[in-house]
Amino acid sequence: MSINLVVLTGNLGKDPEISVFDNGGKMARFSIAVNAGYMDKNSNTWVDKTDWFNLVAFGYAATKAESKLQKGTKVSVQGSLSNRSWEDAEGNKKYATDIRVDKIAIQGGGIQSQNSAAYAGYETIAEIHNANTKALAETIESPEDDLPF
Predict the structure, then answer these.
(1) Is 99 helix (H, G, I), strand (E, B) or coil?
(2) Could you give the domains of the chain?
(3) Which residues, including other chains, have CB under 8 Å from residue 131's CB and lie 6 or more apart?
C-alpha cells in the first residue's frame, strides 16, 4: 500500500499565478508559508521557523484559487507530492517538488468563511485528518492475508 497525502495550513505568500491552456483548462501556482518553532536549549528562547511550499492546482481547485485566494489568505490544502524535471537553457537537468492541490479550504473567515470549505463532506481540516486516520487504521487492522504469526 502506498500513500501520497499532504495536508498543510499556512498563509499565501503572493497572489496565485494563473495559466489558461488552449482547451480552456486552468492551472494556478502559489506558495504558502507554514510557521512552526522550537525552543533553543542553548539560549532558552523560542525560535520561529517558516517553511515555504510551492503548490500547483488544476481545474476546479485552480478556479477556486483564482477567485478566492490572495496574498496573506490563510488556507488549508490537501494534495499530493509531485516531482518534475526539465533542462535549463544551458542543458542542465533541474528538479522540483510541488504539492499538487486537490482541495482548498479558506481558514479564519478570510475571503470565504470556514462553513463553505471546499472539502466535500467535511467542515474542518480536523475532520479530514480524522477520516484519513480512520481509513488508514481500518486498512492496517484488516489485512488481506492471514499471517501465520
Answers:
(1) strand
(2) 6-39+47-141 (2.40.50.140)
(3) 122
